[in-house]
Each structure stands twice: as C-alpha cells, then as structure tokens.
Amino acid sequence: MFALAPEILAALVALSFLGGAIVTSIGPGGILVVAGLYLLTSLSSAEVAGTASATFAVGAILGGAAFTRSGGIDWRVAGVVAATALFTAANYSLLDAVVAPLVYLISRAYLGGVAVGWWLAHRIVAERLKFALRVALIGVAASLVL
C-alpha cells in the first residue's frame, strides 16, 4: 500500500461515498471514483482501471441488491446487457491494440461532427440542412462501398 496525505485520502473517501450514493440511488456514479483516482493519486491508468473496477464490483452488488429489493430491475434487459458486457470484457483484451486507437479516433470524429452539426443547425434553414445531410449520408455510404 502506498502512503497518501490525509486530505487526499479524505477527498477520495468523499468522492467514493458520493459515487456509491449515486450508484445506489440513480445508477452510474462511478466516474467520480475514476476522476478522483486520476486527479488525486499518482496511479497509472492500469492501476486506476483495476482499483475502480474493484470498487465498482462492490457498488454493483450492493446497488443491485437495493434495486432488486425495490423491484427496480427488468431481469430480461439486465440479462442481455450483462451477457453482452461479459462477452465484451472477455474479448476486449484481445482487441485492445486495435480498439483503443479506433475508439479514440471515432470519439474525436464524433465530437467534431457534433460541433459542426451544432454550428450548421444554428446557421442553415431546416430544409436546406436536411438536404445537405442527405447528400452527406449518401457520400459516406458511397465512400464505404468504394
């Protein structure tokens, strides 16, 4: 175990508590733990991922128990999502070398597209924008085929 300053430890505990409360009450709140680990410790990305995953497992079990007790889980949907997550987690390590750069590229392209779309939506009449988007989609489809 590594030494942490008391104020850093207190901040991590507070973020973890808040994340746990959010997970149990409304769903995903674990991002607070990840952000806290990145910002407040010198852990590597792999250590942050492992530490966060361990805390998420505990939160998921306790949150799942709370939602089960209140009848707030659709087990058919949860089963499909869980099976997909299990398959993806089991196979992701094999794809990591390809997927990580691809996800980064796609994320940047998506955010760029959102920015351009926002800009266009505020400057072009709706009918012209719909026509422009149709042309763009046809162009993208053609580029994928060729």
Please, could you describe this protein's structure?
The protein is 84% helix and 0% strand. It starts with 5 loop residues before the first helix and ends with a helix. Helix 1 packs parallel to helix 3. The radius of gyration is 21 Å and the shape is extended. It is mainly α and 146 residues long. The protein has a domain at 1-73.
Name a few traits of the molecule.
mainly alpha, extended, 84% helix, 146 residues
Quick structural summary:
Helix content is 84%, strand content 0%. It is built from 5 helices and no strands.
Helix/strand structural class: mainly alpha
Mean of residue pLDDT values: 73
Number of strands: 0
Distance between the ends: 55 Å
Largest sheet: none
Fraction of residues in helices? over 70%
Shape: extended
State Rg: 21 Å
How much of the sequence lies in strands comes to under 5%
What is the ordering of alpha helices and beta strands? Answer: HHHHH
Uncertain runs: none
Number of contiguous helices: 5
